Known about the structure:
This protein is an alpha/beta fold. The protein has helices at residues 12-17, 19-28, 30-46, 55-70, 96-107, 126-136, 147-158, 180-186, 202-208, 235-244, 272-277, 303-311, 313-318, 322-334, 338-344, 346-351, 355-373, 415-424, 449-458, 462-467; strands at 78-79, 114-115, 120-121, 140-144, 163-167, 173-174, 178-179, 190-194, 213-219, 249-254, 282-286, 297-301, 377-387, 397-407, 430-431, 433-435, 438-442. The chain folds into three domains: 12-70; 78-87 and 350-467, Aspartate Aminotransferase, domain 1; 96-344, Type I PLP-dependent aspartate aminotransferase-like (Major domain) (Aspartate Aminotransferase, domain 2), CATH 3.40.640.10. The site of pyridoxal-5'-phosphate has 16 residues, from α7 and β10.
Amino acid sequence: MNKPELVRPPSVDTVLRSPNGELAIARYGRTAATDAIRHVIERLRAGGQAEPTSMERLGRLALDRLEERERPSQRPVINLTGTVLHTNLGRALLAEEAIEAVVATMRAPTNLEYEIETGSRGERDAHVRGLIKELTGAEDAILVNNNASAVLLVLNTLARDREAIVSRGELIEIGGAFRMPDIMARAGATLREVGTTNRTHLKDYAEAIGPETGLLMKVHTSNYVVQGFTAEVEPAELAKLARQHNLPFVDDLGSGTLIDLSRWGLRKEKTVQDALKGGADLVTFSGDKLLGGPQAGIVAGRKDLIAKLAKNPLKRALRLDKLRLAALEATLKLYRDPDRLAQRLPTLRLFTRTVDDLRALAKRLQPRLADTVGTSWTVETIDCASQIGSGALPLETLPSAGLALRPAGKAAGSAVEKLAAAFRAVPVPMIGRITQGALMFDLRCLEDEALFTAQLDALKPETPDALA
Ligand SMILES: *Cc1c(COP(=O)(O)O)cnc(C)c1O
């Protein structure tokens, strides 16, 4: 018996001169193309290649490798999780108006910190301060990187080496390691917890006030609800108490909405205006949660306090860049026309999609999905419940519809996980949710049907059947 001869692969140079080699050079440059071809040849050599490999195939392998390396690390995905403001998927989608504003700002120098009329130095926050004042009734406002920064800046400015009084029921931890006690410590403030987990009374705050007190703070319990035998102090009462002692009262709203959501049949969430009217001296909130804008932290409230924040050197470290300022300005302007907000602001548009529309969408997509995954899986249209996400309205769900994929017969326990992984491996990854042995696609955040079906074409046809 003859041992098969090992085939000598062609040289790097010959592959570079082949059509695919030339294509690789044209697309990615000579250095990268040479490296990729060398890598492919070395791999074949190491594998003891017995079959001759065509020049065409070598070039194709090199092109595949180059293409994969070039693919952006952060790339679009299809959010089928049912969570609209999904922190891990980038929270709010920007309105077209905001996207255009960002692009324009990227392409040219701008008057970011320049007063065109006078030709003198300007101030970056001035581009949105007026809008925030107009929309919220606040005396003044200041912008930072995100709401965690806003809280840090407020505490560091007003409670450094002093005590910040907070209810035990509000010592929140938000995903991604935002823990109120840790932020306090880093801000140099001493946390003075009052009350108990479920009940805090006005006298608990009153008794804690002393010469060391820097401020009183209320924190929105964004991602949980304390239910049952509970008591919390109305912000208005806290504000009154703070005023009696000449202390600032800070209300960390977290999500921070500028408009009464009950207008669209959603549950009303306390707005920034409500918090200010309720007596908060400063209100802190995020740009990319319910507001539907870019990541940002906004502090609105009393002019003298905002002036103190502006003087803190941390403000410089936490400032917003010109791109996000542009996106925020354009987003805030949409709020001037509430009648069209639900069409123009993607976050609100997704919140307000009706279950009837989503059911119809599920019915349209069902046959196509069933066809793709084959007979080893059942594909059902289902009613489900979407979540707002990002710690806004934690118990509020939105009636929704979607598709559930289950193994048709007996299947290995890992079959559904493998199916979910196959859907994540398509060019625009489809991210669903596994519950009760089913892969669920909530369709609330799917606006581009064609994008969905195009991914099904890319799902390896043998994959689903092989998995069941
Ligand atoms: C989300 C949230 C924060 C943090 O806001 P980011 O913009 O994510 O930094 C702080 N406080 C509360 C109450 C929140 O809900």
